[in-house]
UniProtKB/TrEMBL annotation:
Family, as annotated: Belongs to the YkuD family.
Signal peptide: none
Protein name, entry field: Putative peptidoglycan binding domain-containing protein
Gene Ontology BP annotations: cell wall organization; peptidoglycan-protein cross-linking; regulation of cell shape
Pfam families xrefs: PG_binding_1, YkuD
Entry GO MF terms: glycosyltransferase activity; peptidoglycan L,D-transpeptidase activity
GO cellular component: extracellular region
Residues annotated as domain L,D-TPase catalytic: 67-176
Pathway(s) where this gene product acts: Cell wall biogenesis; peptidoglycan biosynthesis
Record: active site: 135 (proton donor/acceptor), 152 (nucleophile)
Keywords, alphabetical: Cell shape, Cell wall biogenesis/degradation, Glycosyltransferase, Hydrolase, Peptidoglycan synthesis, Transferase
């Protein structure tokens, strides 16, 4: 008797494994390790091996106790939760197409005051590929209307000042942007999409390093070898065709493993 798994079921199964493993790791090792979250990816095939990567792609669940933050760039809103209950929300704006905000789960690592160009407030996040955070702006009209920053989350000055009163170092911040436009990836790019690319290449056995969201030589070589094997243009640049093929191969890999 054969069990048929749809693509949606496979994705839901993989996400469930991610969330379950994350809960176990947090329970056994604490929610952070030197201010960098390390979640263990589910192992779709024993031959691939285990690895860790920073951030998590999945569903947001408010912290059971204390404060947590959801930044929803699809709706351009920041929601503050206290013990799973929504208590405040403010409009926000995020990064542009070529400078996207870091999606995934992060930790507040610093809270301070910056120059008035940043509204006088700064909330830093533990993004490994650059300096990202939440701050104010001298252009309040873009907040809630246009995602045009260099990746940081912009708030109106009075709003970020109010947010600072609630939170402390260690608060979890989840950033989502499901409708973010696709961008071509190549050597020198950084971001959550690069991180996801590295994770997929690693699942398929092409990438040996630790996924870090930085498109460098190792990522270029891994992607180019994948393109060679797929007999498509092998330029080490990720366009939409290469991305679609990667998603299909990872889906096939997970499907084969589930049917074993």
């Amino acid at each position: 008797m054969f069990v048929i798994f749809t693509k949606r079921k496979i994705i839901k199964f993989a996400l469930s494994l991610i969330i379950f493993t994350s809960i176990v790791l947090v329970a056994t090792h604490g929610p952070w390790d030197q201010w960098v979250i390390h979640y263990q990816m589910p192992e779709p095939n024993p031959a691939v091996g285990n690895w860790h990567y920073q951030s998590i792609f999945g569903h947001f669940t408010p912290a059971l106790e204390g404060y947590s933050i959801l930044v929803d760039l699809d709706r351009q809103i920041l929601i503050l939760y206290e013990s799973e209950k929504e208590i405040k929300s403010w409009p926000v704006s995020g990064g542009s197409k070529e400078n996207p905000s870091p999606t995934g789960l992060w930790i507040v690592t610093d809270i301070g005051n910056w120059g008035q160009g940043f509204g006088g407030s700064w909330i830093a996040l533990n993004v490994p590929w650059g300096k990202y955070g939440i701050h104010g702006t001298v252009n309040p009209w873009v907040v809630g209307n246009h995602n045009i920053s260099h990746g940081c989350i912009r708030m109106k000055n009075q709003d970020v000042s109010e947010l600072k009163k609630y939170i402390s170092i260690g608060v979890l911040v989840y950033i989502k942007h499901d409708t973010a436009p696709f961008r071509v990836l190549m050597d020198g790019k950084v971001g959550s999409d690069v991180l996801e690319l590295q994770v997929m290449l690693k699942q398929l056995g092409y990438y040996d390093g630790v996924p870090d969201g930085r498109f460098g030589t190792d990522t270029y070589k891994a992607l180019r070898q994948f393109q060679i094997d797929e007999q498509i243009k092998a330029d080490g640049t990720l366009g939409e065709h290469s991305w679609s093929l990667l998603e299909k191969r990872v889906s096939d890999l997970n499907s084969d493993y589930l049917l074993q």
